[in-house]
Amino acid sequence: MTRLVICVLLCVASSALGRHEKYEGHQLYRVSGLDEQIRALEASLDILSAKPAARSSSGNLEAVVRLSPEEKQQWLQYFDERNMLYTKIADNLADIFRAEEAQINATKRSGKSFVWNTYYRHDEINDYLDHLAAKNPDLVTVINAGLSYEGRQIKYVRISTTRFENTMKPVIVLDAMTHAREWVTTSVALYIIDQLVNQGQNSVLVNEIDWLIIPVVNPDGYEYSFDEDRLWRKTRSKAHEGADECPGVDVNRNFDHHFGTNEHSANPCSNTYEGLFVFSEPETRIVQSAVLSNIDRTALYISLHSFSSMFLYSWGNGTLPSNGLILHLVGVQMATVIDEIALDKADRYIVGNAANALYPTTGTSRDWARAAGVPLTYTLLLPGYEYQFEVPPKYIEQIVTETWPGIAVGAQYVRNNW
Ligand SMILES: *[C@@H]1O[C@H](CO)[C@@H](O)[C@H](O)[C@H]1NC(C)=O
Ligand SMILES: *[C@@H]1O[C@H](CO)[C@@H](O)[C@H](O)[C@H]1NC(C)=O
């Protein structure tokens, strides 16, 4: 009873406050430390990303963490006591989110073509894909792959000059927006679709490869990140105990690969909660069936994430797969062309085994797809630029245009070696 009253009060208060006010005064800090020190933060802080630390820092990993005004003193003292170096990188997240929203509101929108200085809603994206298929019936097929937990249609596109019927061709599968707050991943997926369908100079890659692209794996989380909480990451499912307080599952921990062996992913309130059982999420199952649909000829799978500028390959436990050297080589080829056109202020790409370059993970789509038989599988962490997940819309164009040539190099490798 008391809880209900409190919830009613809080819920009314928070909806009256509007969607960004919960981040009023929140700041972002980059903090470096030893592996264990950074990982220990995960239980109590929102870790926005982690990556290998610069040489001058105080350990081997650095993370971007968000601190509310109330917790700031306590945590900065905690870092000081452990000799963990930190710098402030953003002052008030609510202001940053409002500026992003104003920019999105200010762009003229059309369901028929997209521009690369704004973000689009899920229904706009679905309409665009249907429009593209209607306009290019010999090249583009939209598959209604199934419904999300909250009932949104998850679509993917198949791009093929032979309707996926020529089984001699290799297949490339890309997905994006597994994690809701990583908005720029969908921009990259849509740009790649545009390059393949509308830009004639890529005809070799279109003629000789079949492409399967899922621009929004997690529409419930995506829409929630627009309407309620810009930093939402997981799905919105509520099948597990404790879901009232902590809904959602991390799709990229929900795949059938060493599932259930990572304590950090067992807690429903963790941002990396793996779910009750493998493939518990409809979103996970849709990626699974998309990858399995042409498994014998799928040569490359890339899951687009944000941010950190990294190509990560299997396995999530630090052991290398049998083709580890090839994975590294192709990853370096892709990263090199991206680095050549990245902005000077961008971090150079890191290519490496996921656990060695970053930290151990379980249940990822990358490892599951590799184990299912796809030879080349990567988690691609796109660059952050400034506020990291909240890639300011002015950088979208830079990121989509620099990433495509990298993907194209991966596709060339597939074409030459299939
Ligand atoms: C953006 O548009 C929405 C819907 O019209 C409106 O509620 C919101 O206040 C606008 N946000 C900004 C920052 O202008
Ligand atoms: C890591 O996972 C791979 C793939 O499942 C497995 O072959 C390997 O033995 C594991 N390594 C360790 C150290 O457990």
Automatic annotation (TrEMBL):
Domain of life of the native organism: Eukaryota
Record carries keyword Protease: yes
SUPFAM superfamilies: Zn-dependent exopeptidases
BP GO annotations: proteolysis
Cofactors that this protein relies on: Zn(2+)
GO (cellular component) term, any one: extracellular space
Every Peptidase M14 domain range: 118-414
Gene3D superfamilies the record matches: Zn peptidases (3.40.630.10)
Coiled-coil ranges per UniProt: none
Any one GO molecular function term: zinc ion binding
Protein name: Peptidase M14 domain-containing protein
